[in-house]
Amino acid sequence: MGTISILIFAVFLAVFLGVVTYDLYKSKKNGTNFRIKNCVVGFLMVAPAVLLTFLFILLPMLFSLGYAFTDFNQMRPDEVNFVGFNNFKEIFREIGAGGDMLSALKNTAIFVVGVVPLQILLALGLALFCNRKVRGVAIFKVCFFAPVVISLTVTSYLWVTILSPEADGLLNSFLALFGIPEQDFLSNPDTAMLWIVIISAWQGCGYQMLIFLSGLTNIRSDLYEAARLDGANAWYRFIHITVPGLKSSVLYITITVFIGACRIMVQPMLMIGPYPEGWTLSYYMYMQGTEYSLVGKSSAIALLMTIFIGLVTFIQKKVLGEKKSG
Amino acid sequence: MSVKKIFKIIGVVACAAIVASGIPGWVINDSDADGLNGNTVVSVMFHVSSSSKEGQAYKKRIDAFNEAYKDKKIKATANYIPRTDGSSAYETALISMKISNKLPDIITFDSPKCSYYAANNYLYNITNMVADIKDEFFEGSINYYNGYIYGLPIQESSAGFYYNKDLFKKAGISDKEISEYSDESPWTYEEFKSVCSRLKSVCSKVPVNMSIGGTSDETAPYLLYPFVYASGGQFASEDGNTVKGYLDSEKTISTFEFFQELINEGYTDDKVDANAFYNGETAMYLSSGWTIADLRNKNYSAFPNGSNWGLLPYPYGEEGCAASATGSWSFGITQNHHQDKAAARELLKWLVNDESSRVITEHTGMISAKKAVNEGRYDADSPEAMLLQQLANTGKARPPMVGYSVLSTTFNQIIHELGRTNNLRDLITERTVTLQETIDKY
After folding, report:
1. Among the listed residues B308, B351, B304, B290, the one whose alpha carbon sits nearest the alpha carbon of residue B160
2. Where residue B31 falls among pLDDT bands split at 50, 70, 90?
3. pLDDT digits (tens, 9 = 90+) for B285-338
4. Which end of chain B, N or C, is less surrounded by CB atoms within 10 Å?
C-alpha cells in the first residue's frame, strides 16, 4: 500500500510539475507583462493546498475507487484480491432482495426528497425575515444560525431527549396535556425519518439563510422601487425580482443541500440505530466498512453514491444554471 | 531570477517531497524491542483511560512490573486508548497499528472478538505459554479459537436480576420463595413469569427492566444471550461459520418468542430505563455485576444506604439448561514484528497473576478471573457470591465466531423489532439469511 501511495504521489507530482512548467512556458511566450518570479511564487503558494488535497482527498478517493473492485477486509490488509464487479452485483442483488440495503435506499430517498425543499424554503423564509430593517433582527440571526455551530452529536442527543418515548419525555408530556397517548417517534417506521428530516432542516437552514441573505443584499433596491411605482404587490415583487435575483444562490444551495442530504448518517445513527427505519446509504456504507470490516463492499457503495450524486448535480446545474447568452 | 534557477529550485523541492513521503515507511523498525538503555521493551495497549479506576490499576501493575524486572532488563510501556461506543475507536487504533506493522506486544480485547482477531492474525497462539496457569481461571472465560488459547480474562463479568425487596414483599413474594429461585437449581421461565404477573400490580412501570432497549450497543446482546442457551437454542455451529439452522432453529426462535410474550403481557418493554429500578418504579432489573457497586454507593431513593435489594440468577426454559452471562475483556499477545515473545509472555503472566487480579478487581469492584483470588473473599449471602456461584455452575460465553460483530448487530435488530413485528419467525429467518451471507465473507 505504501509503495502504491508513493507511486501515485510521484505521478501526481509529475503532473503538477508538468502543469507548472507548461504554464510558465505558455505565460512567457504569450505574456506581455510576464514575470517568471511571480508565477513561481504563485505556484509555490498553492503547492501546500495541492499537496493536502492530494493526501486527504485525491489519494483516499483513488484508493476507494480501487477497493470497490476488491474483497478488501480491513482486518486482513495484506490479502486483497480483485473481484471485478462482484461487490456491485451483490449490492444490486441486496436491493432486489429487499433487505437493509433497500431500506437504506428508501430512507435516503425519503430524506433527500423531504429535506432539500424544506431546508431551502425554511432558509429562504428566515433570510427574508432577517432582511427586513426591524429592530432586534440581529438577535434573530444569531438564534437561527446557532444550531449550525452546535455539534451534530449534541443536537441528536438533545432531540432524543425531547422525543423520548417515555410518558415523561418532553414532547410526550406536552401531548399528554391534550390527551394524546405517548408516542414512540423515533422507532415508528412511519415517523422516524420524518423527524430526522425536520431536525436536519432545523439544524442546517441557518447556514443557507446566511447565503440567501448575502444574495438578497446584492439585489438592487431601485428594482423594488420601480416595481412598486408600477403597482406590483409583494408577491409579484418576490416572484419577479427576488427569486430571479437569488437564482445563483438557489443553484449553489440546492446542490450543496442535495449532496449533504445524500450523505446523511450521524442523526439516524445516533437517534435511531441500525434498524430498517434508521438505515441510510452512508450509514449502511459505514457499518459495512467500519463495523464489519468489508471495505470492498463499502467502497462500491461509495462509488455508486458518487456517480449518482455527480449525475444529479450535473442535471441540477443544467436545469437551474444560468443560460449563457450569445 | 533566471528560468534555469527556478527549475533547479522546483527540482530540489520535488526530490525533497519524494524523499519525505518515503520516510514514514523507513521509520517502522524493530528498534523499540531493544531501546531504552539496553532494556527489552514490551508494550501493552489498554482499552480504558489511564485516569479511570481500571486504568489506575493497570498503571500500578505496570509500574510494579518495571520495578520487579529492572534487573532482568525488561521494561513495559503502556498505551491507553479508551474504547468508545461499540469499542470502535479502540478497534480503529488496532487496525491502524496492524497496517503500519506497529501492533503492541499485548492488547486487551472484548472476549467475543477473540476469534475475529485470532483468525485475522492479530492474536498469537499462547496455548503453550499459559499451559501451567490456565487451570487457575474459570474455564468458560478462557479465550479459545480452533481449540487453542489466544487470550486470558482480565476479570470476571456476570449478570443477574436485581430486585427490590419492598416491592417483592408488597406483591406477596416471600423470602422462602425467593430463596428457592436462587439455590443451585435456578428458577424456570414459568416461575419467572409468575413473579412478573404478581409484581405487575405493585409497579408503577413494567415489573422488570430486561434491558431490551439496550440495542444500540453490546448491552442487550451481553445481557440477553444466555436466554438462547437457557431455551436450548444455539447461535451458530461450533466453528462459528454457520448460523443458518442455528439462529433460526425452533429453540432459538422460542427464546425470542419468550421475550415477545413478556412484552405482550406487559411485564417488560424497551422504554424502561435503569432509573425506573433505582426510583422504585420497577421491581427487577437485569444488569451486570457493575450495578452492585452503584447500588451500594449511590444512595438511590428506592435503596437508601445501599440496602433493600437482592440479586437473582437467570431463569431457564423447560427444554434448555441454566445459563448465565460471562466473558469480559481479556489480555492477548499479538502477532507483531517481535518474533521473540519471551518478554511479552513475562508481562502477560504478570498482568494475570493473583496480585494483579486482586488490584484490578479492587479498583473495579468486579469479580476476579482467578479462582484463588475469590476464595473466602465474599460472604456466602452476598450478591458477589451469587454471581460467583452462577459463573461456576452456569456461566456460558458468548458464541466465539469470527463474525461476532455482525451477529451482535443482528441480535440487536431482532430484539429491536420484538415489540413491533407480528411475524417474528419470518423476521428471524430473513435476518439469519443476511447474517449468513455476511459471515461467508469472513
Report:
1. B290
2. very low
3. 999 888 998 898 888 989 988 889 999 999 998 888 888 998 889 999 999 877
4. N
Query: Mean pLDDT, chain B, as a whole number?
Result: 86
Q: Which of B14, B24, B412 is closest, CB to CB, to A17?
A: B14
**pLDDT over 70 (residue A236):** yes
pLDDT band at B10 (very low <50, low <70, confident <90, very high): low
Name which of A275, A212, A142, A157 is nearest B417 in CA terms: A275
Angle at B349 between CA B345 and CA B350, to 5 degrees: 115
pTM for this predicted structure? 0.79
Q: Is the dihedral of CA A238, A239, A243, A244 positive or negative?
A: negative
Q: Provide CB contacts within 8 A for B427, sequence distance 6+.
A: B414, B417, B421
Residue B6 C-alpha, separation from nearest chain A C-alpha, in angstroms: 8
Region of residue A5 (left: phi > 0; alpha: psi -120 to 50; beta: else):
alpha
Calculate the CA B395 to chain-centre distance: 13
pLDDT-derived band at B2 (thresholds 50, 70, 90) equals low
Query: What domains can you pick out in chain B, each with its CATH number?
Result: 38-157+327-396 (3.40.190.10), 159-325+403-440 (3.40.190.10)
The alpha carbon of residue A165 is apart from the nearest alpha carbon of chain B, in Å, by 7
Amino acid identity of B312?
A: L
Residue in chain A lying closest to B9 (CA): A40
Q: Nearest C-alpha of chain B: how many angstroms from A52?
A: 13
Rounded average pLDDT over B61-81? 92
B116 Cβ neighbours under 8 A, 6+ residues apart: A75, B401, B402, B403, B404, B405, B442
Type of residue found at B53: K
Inter-residue contact B194 to B284 (CB < 8 Å): no
Q: Which of A218, A295, A215, A217 lies closest to A248 in space, CA to CA?
A: A215
Scored b (16 or more CB within 10 A) or e, A73-111 reads: bbbbbeebeebeeebbebbeebbeeebbbebbbbbbebb
Give A273-287 pLDDT, tens digit per residue. Answer: 888 889 999 999 999
* Integer CA distances (angstroms), A181 to A168, B269, B382, in order: 11, 16, 42
pLDDT value at residue B371: 86
Q: What is the pLDDT of residue B9?
A: 63
Are A40 and B9 in contact (CB < 8 Å)? yes
Whole-angstrom distance, CA of residue B411 vs CA of residue B431: 9
Give the model's pLDDT for residue A324: 54
- Beta-bridged to residue B353, according to DSSP, are none
